[in-house]
Fold this protein.
Amino acid sequence: MPARIGDIGFPMVLHPRDPAVAWVFPMDGTTVWPRTPIGGRPAVYGTRNAGRSWKRMDQGLPKGQAWFTVKRQAMGADALDPVGLYFGTTGGEVWASFDEGARWHCLCLHLPHVYSVEAALPG
């Protein structure tokens, strides 16, 4: 990712059908800790061209004072069309986007730390 976005991102999710599409949740890596959203403003960044350019995708996420961490296994995707994206936080929140990151919705609050997220669909 470009240096202006950051160079630390624990979770990265690939599109299930398009290898040029990916999403990452960058963290502040200026010191060893806290590894929280840059400036307390969480966002997922997406690429549709194998990393040549990145787009900030934060609609629906907190606008500030969000000092949580998203662990390495705490972000995932489903195989629907459009792809659903999901992440969980150390603050006990689970967030989802049902339109490939364009808009985010908080699914639940007040859980213990979320260390892993997987999408399970009826089949």
In short: Residues 64 and 75 are 20 Å apart (CA to CA). The mean pLDDT is 91. Strands lie at 8-14, 22-27, 44-47, 55-57, 75-77, 85-88, 94-97, 105-108. The radius of gyration is 14 Å.
